[in-house]
Specification:
The chain is 69% helix and 2% strand. The chain is mainly alpha-helical. The chain has one domain. It has a two-stranded antiparallel sheet with strand order 1-2. Helix 1 crosses helix 11 and helix 2 packs across helix 11. The longest helix is centred in the first third of the chain and has 42 residues. It is globular, with a radius of gyration of 21 Å. 48% of the residues are buried.
Length: 400
């Protein structure tokens, strides 16, 4: 395995750790209301914050805000990287059937069984009757079926279908992609400009029409109406970079991006500050804010996302091209951990309600226990369920 591939494998391990940290911190955000959100009342904000604890720390708000801007964007980019090699080796039909099996089937099973199990804890925080039978009645009465974090898999499967359609119905598309990657890949600043401009075209009109905070739930499908095209841009950017090659251009461990990691880290921080400053003005009431205030917030998100994505890649390529057994195991189990971790996190947060510990201590306990539990179960699932042995997402794996 090349140095760049090893670095990307390690980045996938870091990503799943950040996912677990993010979900572990949510009940302890200082910006949350004092009481839990009611289960039966729109806009059903318990979907995002199933547990609300009385212990808070504002530092968690800053961390989660940064990850809200950068984490899912990076995950879609990583998920596109290995699509070209897999498509070329398997062909469109086998690739699509493989993705249906490894993304579609786990998505369906997780939405049917794991999401209701996790949200039962949210129901109990406000329920007059906490029994399972009453919960199922309230759950079935909702105008949708909660999918939890698995919304990511639903969009990812759709993006894979887009890639298959391009591969099958547009011969020579990969050569055009290579030309595009050759134009931008050797110059990270140029790549940043192309990526941010493409993202702006995809994101700004939708966020002005809807809201950066709104979610839409239709049956078992959930998504933010402002972001699907933005995520598609990053998935296709990953496909573009992966088509060009994992050991040259942008992903060269000795390339310009890796050598200038300090500058890209500074750019990521500056982008987040720009987004946060602009968004703070419109956060209280986005719908009534004038366009002149909405536009800087939208563009700030675009710039922060692109800078954070490149900053993460730069640091990874510069420092993470080493092999450690723990990180290899964590990376190999990342997909399965993503599928199951939310159940552990939410119920651990529920168990700690009313316990007299500081928010930092509670969050640390939730993260540590969620990491150990989901890692252990994921490893066991990998040995017993062949369909879950390969990482179909969260960056893929070479040869997947």
């Amino acid at each position: 395995m090349s140095r760049s591939s090893i670095a990307l494998v390690n980045l996938r391990a870091f990503v799943i750790l950040i996912v677990l940290v993010f979900h572990s911190l949510l009940p302890y955000l200082a910006s949350l209301p004092p009481n839990p959100y009611p289960f039966d009342a729109a806009p059903y904000l318990w979907l995002a914050f199933p547990i609300i604890d009385s212990e808070r720390w504002f530092g968690f708000d800053l961390f989660c805000a940064w990850q809200d801007v950068s984490l899912m964007t990076l995950m879609f980019f990583l998920s596109g990287l290995f699509v070209p090699t897999s498509l070329a080796r398997k062909g469109s039909r086998r690739f699509l059937s493989d993705r249906m099996l490894r993304i579609g089937l786990p998505y369906v099973l997780a939405v049917i069984f794991l999401a209701p199990l996790a949200y039962y804890a949210a129901y109990r925080t406000t329920a007059a009757d906490p029994d399972v039978e009453a919960y199922l009645q309230h759950l079935l009465a909702l105008p949708f079926w909660p999918c939890g974090p698995q919304w990511f898999l639903g969009e990812l499967l759709l993006f894979n279908i887009v890639a298959v359609a391009a591969y099958r119905f547009f011969p020579g598309w990969d050569q055009r992609v290579v030309c595009l990657a050759d134009f931008a890949g050797g110059n990270p600043v140029r790549f940043f400009i192309v990526l941010a401009a493409s993202s702006a075209l995809a994101y700004v009109p939708l966020v002005l029409a809807y809201s950066p905070f709104a979610w839409v739930n239709v049956g078992p499908i959930g998504f933010q109406p402002s972001r699907p095209l933005h995520y598609l841009v990053y998935f296709l950017a990953g496909v573009t970079v992966g088509t060009y090659g994992l050991d040259r251009g942008l992903l060269d461990c000795d390339g310009v991006l890796a050598r200038r990691w300090r500058a890209w880290l500074a750019a990521a921080f500056a982008g987040f500050v720009l987004w946060a400053a602009a968004t703070s003005v419109t956060m209280a009431d986005w719908s009534s804010a004038p366009v002149i205030l909405k536009l800087p917030a939208a563009l700030g998100f675009v710039i922060a996302s692109a800078a954070a994505c490149l900053g993460s890649l730069a640091i990874c390529l510069r420092f993470a091209h080493w092999r450690r057994r723990a990180f290899e195991s964590l990376s190999a189990n990342a997909y399965r951990m993503y599928l199951i971790h939310y159940v552990f996190a939410v119920w651990l947060q529920y168990a700690l309600l009313g316990v007299g510990l500081f928010a930092i201590v509670k969050a640390s306990v939730v993260f540590g226990a969620t990491l150990i539990s989901s890692w252990t179960v994921a490893a066991a699932l990998g040995r017993t369920l062949p369909v879950l042995r390969l990482n179909a997402t969260i960056g893929g794996v070479p040869g997947a």
